[in-house]
Design goal:
The chain is an alpha+beta fold and about 475 residues long. The chain is built from 13 helices and 16 strands. The longest helix has about 40 residues. This is Lipoprotein-anchoring transpeptidase ErfK/SrfK.
């Protein structure tokens, strides 16, 4: 028999010393002594015992055939069981929709099948030892998926299912609403699913959406809700810091060495504010950026030089990386009087703004000057914050006319409420792209309650006493 089957068997059952011994005999017959000796070393006492025996060679051949046959029978049973588990999981996901129904993802079915295949190995290992972590260390992770408009979060659920295992006992999927092509990120996103690994290594998925499961789901625990709220806040900090690192690189041609290099006085205030956790996140996010720029790595710090284990920072995030991976972008919709802060197709904030109708130009810009109290006034026409759009006389700024929000009363600038512009100023780094157009965003306002606003500390000397701004307010 060719050793291909034995190699497959040994790979799946590395603790079977007899299999190692038989594989070594196969390699020896083929003249591959180095590989044979390695297998004999893995066989240990089995090698010593059987090399001294006088049993006929055909006995070993029969044993080898039986070993492989048993392995193939076990795999067949696992395939059948995996198929039934997959079908059961799809029932939970979609309440048995047809395969071509809106929102049904064939990729989801494939992902679940692969995930359930991995589950078999976990359950087999659980026969001798408990998988549960009694201390609860590094055992809970979060992710988010889109629910609504035909989407039922299948991809996020499949990913959570696939990632469950010995180091992750609880995976929670939070629900983002869908509006056209956009996913709406909120601080109070509901828990849609929790996937858990019990002390026998078996996975269970509990839906917390009564409409989704057609059931009366249990209450989500206060602890999970608090952890979810902390997780969403953390992702916003990571998105802001990651975008700032990218901006600094474009502007200076080198990588920043720490958060302080990003949070300098005007005009080098890539970040106008800092947030809790940024210093801890910085080495991980920097390394991720550098690994994505391998061809340019020689111009900056070596990717691993300042790196720390991402699990120490993003161990509570499915996949061990930030959820909001795409660089931040600002989009202004002239029709709906909305300004959105985006990461990819995820709307992190969607503020109501005042505009100037046809006087507000359409096009693509970047945030250049970021100024606190423009023209040295906090109660002037530009309010407490101003963000100039490229080298123009247009800006995103506050206003002393809050009643103009939602109307076309400016000379072209984008007016914002005080709390909104201050939050945007903290989140959006210098260099953030700004796209202005018509009919781009949903009408839904996405703004947290005051207690859930983005937390930040203002960097000193963010004003510009050397310039008087004449933005077209």
């Amino acid at each position: 028999m060719q050793n291909t089957h034995l190699r497959t068997y040994v790979k799946k059952h590395p603790d079977n010393k007899m299999a190692w011994y038989l594989l070594g005999k196969e390699y020896l017959n083929e003249g591959q002594e180095a590989k044979a000796n390695y297998c004999f070393q893995q066989a240990g006492e089995v090698y010593e015992a059987f090399e001294r025996s006088k049993a006929p060679a055909d006995i070993w051949v029969d044993y080898q055939n039986k070993l492989v046959e048993m392995g193939e029978q076990k795999e067949k049973k696992q395939r059948v069981r995996k198929l039934w588990l997959t079908l059961l999981m799809l029932l939970v996901l979609a309440l048995v929709p047809p395969a071509d129904a809106p929102g049904f993802s064939r990729d989801t079915a494939t992902a679940l099948t692969d995930a359930l295949a991995a589950t078999e190995d976990q359950e087999e290992q659980a026969g001798e030892a408990s998988v549960a972590d009694p201390e609860g260390n590094d055992s809970s992770v979060f992710t988010a998926g889109t629910f609504g408009g035909g989407s039922q979060g299948g991809t996020a659920l499949a990913a959570a299912w696939a990632s469950a295992g010995s180091n992750v006992q609880t995976s929670a999927v939070l629900g983002m609403q869908v509006s056209d092509q956009w996913s709406l990120w909120k601080r109070n996103m509901p828990v849609k699913y929790i996937i858990q690994t019990n002390n026998k290594g078996r996975l269970t998925a509990q839906s917390y959406d009564a409409k989704q499961c057609d059931c009366e789901p249990p209450e989500v625990s206060t602890e999970v809700k608090q952890l979810a709220a902390a997780w969403t806040a953390k992702q916003e900090v990571a998105a802001s810091l990651s975008s700032a690192i990218g901006t600094y690189r474009k502007k200076n041609g080198s990588w920043p060495k720490n958060v302080n290099q990003l949070a300098q006085p005007f005009p080098n205030n890539v970040l106008g504010e800092t947030s809790p956790g940024m210093s801890q996140m910085f080495p991980v996010l920097l390394a991720m950026h550098q690994q994505g720029k391998e061809t340019e790595a020689q111009t900056g710090t070596a990717a691993g030089e300042n790196a720390v284990d991402s699990a120490d920072v993003f161990g509570d995030t499915l996949g061990g990386e930030p959820f909001l991976k795409e660089p931040l972008e600002i989009v202004v919709d002239k029709k709906n009087h909305r300004l959105a802060l985006l990461s990819g197709n995820t709307i992190i904030r969607n503020y109501e703004v005042g505009l100037g109708g046809d006087r507000t130009p359409e096009g693509t810009y970047v945030i250049s000057d970021k100024v606190v109290n423009p023209n040295a006034r906090s109660n002037g026409e530009f309010g407490t914050r101003g963000m100039q759009l490229s080298d123009t006389n247009y800006a995103i700024h506050g206003t002393n006319e809050p009643d103009s929000i939602g109307l076309d009363e400016s000379l072209g600038c984008v007016r914002m409420n005080k709390a909104d512009v201050e939050e945007l100023f903290a989140l959006a780094p210098q260099g953030t792209p700004v796209r202005i157009g018509t009919d781009l965003l949903p009408d839904t306002v996405v703004v947290p309650e005051a207690k859930d606003r983005y937390k930040y500390t203002l960097v000193p000397k963010q004003n510009n006493p050397n310039k008087t701004y004449h933005w077209l307010n």
